[in-house]
Amino acid sequence: MQNPVDADRCAVRIERLNEECYCISLDREALRREFSRACPTCGVDALIEGGPLFSPLPVFVARPHLEEMRAVIAAVETVVASPHYREAALAWAPAIARHDPNSPGVFFGYDFHLGPSGPKLIEINTNAGGAMLNAVLARAQRACCEAVVGLSAGAVDPEELEAEFFSMFVSEWRRCRGEAPLATVAIVDDAPQLQFLAAEFELFARMFERKGLTAFVADARELQYRDGALWRGESRIDLVYNRLTDFDFSEPAHEALARAYLDGAAVITPHPRAHAFYADKRNLTLLSDPATLRGWGVAETAVAALERAVPRAVRVCAEDAEALWSRRKELFFKPASGFGSRAAYRGDKLTRRVWKEILAGNYVAQQYVAPSLRHLAPMSDSPLKLDVRCYVYEGRIQLVAARLYQGQTTNFRTPNGGFATVFSDAVLRA
């Protein structure tokens, strides 16, 4: 076993590359070839040149930190299995979350900041976008300098990721339908052609087609529930890859999905129950409360991992308004059902007007953890911030990627920012 001191030194050496390695690992011609192969109709030029979607720079994460992320993910799974946690999470979840479809849900995204004391879990998402885009990106990397030689991209071999992703959807189907044949898959969002990651929807459709299925991208408003089945036009849908951000299907336009979900007429993944257990930001108040977890009888190894890695979070309520306002500079405020950093605020940027909106909304206040930095050039005075996302299915890391940005939260507007391939000295296959 590696000495902990040596492991720490190794981590420092590898992650120092984020400060000292300025080479470009992205092979743009290879990226064009990979996208053209995976999806000839996706508009490769617009995708690659249309904005800062893909960073040319890699991000370096050391093995001990990746192993700590894995331990945190395993700890979350341990807590979520607790009846006490489930009862607490369902108490503030919408009623639809009480329906159990008997499947875990695809593409959980565990987002980490790499703090001085190790990875910090900032949040969990249950319809994490970018996995297929990052899979293609990982296949277009090259060892751009000696320091990169021997490091690996991702957690699973990039060439195996498509098979990994497809088997995940098959697993969802089998959990709900056994050996019944899967024929038709719909990738569903509102106005999908206008979504920022619209190209990824097409990538998934082409993947399903290569596996012999009928697949299409559909607007949720096109769907109908009739004769005990979910339809788009004359196409009966077996499985929905759900990309909606209406996590409980409460909007009128999503009534067909809600009825199909509750009646078990189609396999829908991810689903409201997964969001309620993992992605509702109020759950961070439970995951960051070691006393409560111990009181529930959660294993000490899981409690210790979460205590190290999950910044303390509390619900925002009027009774605590004065205390929270006084501490705002050390806090980050997130809406309970937030996604994509929308309506999320760093406390040191708050105005009184926004503070009133937060108090009137359904927010949590999380201890702020500054993101680590990726330097672009020697002595750069404008480094990019970064977070690391683990794409996870049933507690297993499939892919590790990063997002580079400037500003208050992640975005895809920063030159040289966007999705970035993670290089590490470890491949996590467990």
Name a few traits of the molecule:
430 residues, globular, 16 helices, alpha+beta, Dna Ligase, domain 1, 19 strands
Query: Over all CA atoms, what is the radius of gyration?
Result: 21 Å
**Shape, please?**
globular
Oligomer description: single chain
- Return residue spans where pLDDT drops below 50 for at least 5 consecutive residues: 1-7
Number of helices: 16
Number of strands: 19
Task: Describe the fold and architecture.
This protein is globular. The protein has 430 residues and is of the alpha+beta class. Helix 5 packs across helix 14 (300-309). It is built from 16 helices and 19 strands. Strand 5, helix 9 (198-210) and strand 6 (214-219) form a beta-alpha-beta unit. It folds into 2 domains: 4-308 and 370-424, no CATH class; 312-367, Dna Ligase, domain 1 (2-Layer Sandwich).
Q: Helix and strand layout, with pairings?
A:
Layout (H helix, E strand, L loop, with lengths): L3 H12 L1 H4 L7 H11 L5 H6 L9 E2 L2 H18 L2 H9 L16 E8 L2 E8 L5 H8 L13 E2 L7 H17 L6 E6 L8 H13 L3 E6 L3 E4 L2 E4 L2 E3 L1 E4 L12 H9 L3 E3 L2 H8 L4 H4 L2 H6 L4 H10 L3 E3 L5 H6 L4 E5 L9 E2 L5 H9 L2 E5 L4 E3 L9 E10 L2 E10 L12 E7 L6
Helix pairs in contact: 5-14
